[in-house]
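User: Last request for today: this protein with flavin-adenine dinucleotide, please.
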Amino acid sequence: MNDLKLDGLGKKERLKFKNLSKDREKVMASTPLDNIKVDYNTNEIARSLHPKLQYVKVIDIINESSDVKTFLLAPNEEKGTKKLAYFKAGQYISVRIRIGKCLYKRPYTLSCSPKLALNNRYTITIKRKEEGVVSNHFFNNITVGSSFVVSAPSGTFCYERIRDAKNVIAIAGGSGITPFISMAEAINDQLLNFNLTILYGAKTRKDIIFKEKLDKLSSHEKIKVKYILSEEESDKYETGFIEKETIDPYLVEENSFFVCGPMELYKHINEVLKEYNLAKKFIRTDLFFSEIEVRREENFNVKVITKDKEFNITCNGKETLLSAIEKNGILAPSSCHVGVCGLCRSKLISGKIKTFDSDLRVSDKNLNYIHPCSSFPESDIVIKLPN
Amino acid sequence: MDNSYDAIVIGAGNAGLISALKLVKENKKVLILESNNVPGGMATSFIRGRFEFEASLQAISGYGSSEKPGPLYKLFEKLDIVDKIKFINLTEAFHVYCKEKKEDYVMPFGIQEFINKMNEYVPNSEKAMKKFFILAEEVQKALLFLENDKNVNSQTLLEHFPNFIKVAALSTDKVFKALKMPKKAAEILSTYWVYLGSPTSTLSFVHFASMLLSYIYLGAVVPEKRSHEINTILAEEITKNGGVIKYLSTVQEILFEEGKVSGVRLSDGKDFKSKHILFNGSPTFLYGKMIPKEHVPKEALKLTNSRVLGARGFSIYLGLNQSPEDIGLTDYNYFIYHSLDSNSEFENRSALKNNSCVATVLNNINPHCSPAGTTLITLTSTFFGDAFDSKVTEENYFELKNQIAENMINNFEETTGINIKSYIEEIEIASPVTFARYGGHPEGIIYGYKLTGLDNLLPRTLNKEKENFIPNIRICGGFDAWGNGFSNTYLSGYRAAKQTLLDMKGEEE
Ligand SMILES: Cc1cc2nc3c(=O)[nH]c(=O)nc-3n(C[C@H](O)[C@H](O)[C@H](O)COP(=O)(O)OP(=O)(O)OC[C@H]3O[C@@H](n4cnc5c(N)ncnc54)[C@H](O)[C@@H]3O)c2cc1C
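Assistant: Here's the final one, the structure of the complex with flavin-adenine dinucleotide:
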């Protein structure tokens, strides 16, 4: 035992200790027997911003061009969705479409001002892709009145005022304009505050979407829009590709570049931006993977294990595991489809895959976890899904 | 498919995972149900760009090393996972800044080193500091004793721990006074208060002293590959031993048959059967909405209503595009306080009035945690009361988060004189809203209930069995007696598993 002396402490304090248990019971006994408070503003906002699912219905369809349509969505109240979640300009929702017995999920950027969400409306803008199961479904089968399920808004391709420069050069190709129309609208609605120059590359005049809106927005002192056509000569537009000369006039001392569009655009812009010798923080893309060159045109056997069942399917070396899983009518969690959000994180029990430089945690990599949304088989595979 | 289990664990946080591992190792058939898609709860990591951020961890205490094993080390040993996870030691206890007085203090690990350093900063503090550590040691031993024998009149307790008994019901401030601790020394010593989420006027001395002693004596660690590494390994071990983990599965209701616990129902309507439940969430929601009203005893309602929600979390995760040396970040943990007086600091945080935080620079103990030439830094703060809750709306949410984050970063820069803002390549901000969603706890609290008055460690411990209101439901994690913290929650999970094993045994007899 130590010979510690504590002056001024004695009987009273000892008694207090002896009574601790009883005193606690007394406090409890004297507490009113109200119902426990279970509704908290903070939790309510968490639920509003990140609902598990949102039931929506199409209330209008706008033809933007021959192969691009915008769908105006409203909450499907009959299914219990009373309001739509607020979002940050640049975010996407993952749309779930059931075709036959298969459930497909596709991310689409919200192409409207976040303010619209506060009025319980979203728009998504979809380009028809020749082999796109879902985009074709939208063009052929979705009409005003159709309803489906979407995820909460998600994604980090957003302007962050603490991180990004005050002057932003947005480089868009084709339907890659969608996040930037949302950002421009947000600036116009005073939700965001930065200088935005949109350099918008399209094949021909007909392929420019949101032209009218963009022209109107460009009268805002903080917004500039420039169109560059690659396959059409015109007096009114610049022709060719977006080059250093296209960009130079809009630069100030510090600039952030946001790039969104097809793979060829990334590759091209990547080369162009090299000339500026920019720190990585000033270049933001909504694609995080580099294209995988070697993919084998060969069918592999894939055994898919879920909590309740096992499935034997085939997957071609040219498609992602998730795509094969979806096509076979197997339910699998997913959202971003570019290896980033982590929702599809699954265990690779055996086999070899090729994957994007995707965003796996170090310890997940060591333990053979993969993101099926961004993994291509290179051998027969056994995989365990999270659900 | 057979849907019945020996035990169901709700939540795969630290406590849930450990409890499940213990149970499967005892050959029980165990199901874990977890809302999120990965194990770990608050203890997790996430990726932005080329950075993997630690979501919550700054320091794990109570681990020690093979030469000096702490309670957590011993626990991991019992569960055969010691060799599976690589830990890295913190090199200093803390670097604390007081903005209002423009002072800062760097404190080392090791009791003698700590006392010596304190005496340099506060001459004549040595005597009181020595007494503090002697008392802390007695406290720690007494608490260990009480774990097994809760009789406060036990002869052994009275004989062997006379000083413990005198301070057992007192606040930290009161004992500082009895120890004649010089004010400045008491303030530097109280730096640790923020980890317990309660200011020294209301925080029980025995809890404070026992935690601080463990921290200074054993040092502290972090896992080399973020806390996600611990979770994945625990999850693998559980599965290997026959346990089943279902992610994206939220338990909505506890089911009863003939007045007894019989299973759980998920939010998608699926049922699972078990007579034993271990619950890793908040009693507020357990008693408030998961258990049908007719099965919630009056006492459970009263107790829950008597408690105060603890610290709400706010974290800013920054990936910087320069190395710590280039930026001038030399320490691992910067405690940025406006005042070193925890009580005034607490008041200010209850009004969202100061921009205090703890800034953690992982690279300074784990150089390879991010690509060469970059830095991971996290700024974490805690709010109290309705400081945040009363201000936030869905519409102002993103802006409010940005404002608070900006103020915190500016405050860090002003206080330390180190510029970080120009180097931000990635940023993520977690607010109480984020924590409410991710942990599933009320109001985004990250430390369970506030440790205060008669809701401090000892009264909680002494009444624990009495407050186990519904047979066969064991609560574990940050809402348990010891409150938050990696060590505390892991140990809580282990205790809950052992209780459940006893519950099971009781049934057989
Ligand atoms: C920012 C921050 C910094 C921190 N720093 C430190 C530190 O430096 N050192 C330290 O020791 N500790 C620290 N902590 C505290 C520590 O992280 C926590 O105490 C610990 O992780 C909590 O573990 P837990 O077992 O209580 O479970 P939690 O992490 O609270 O997890 C509970 C789990 O249960 C799940 N769940 C809840 N209800 C349900 C339901 N109905 N159905 C299904 N699943 C459910 C949740 O989804 C969650 O995964 C910090 C915490 C935060 C947030």
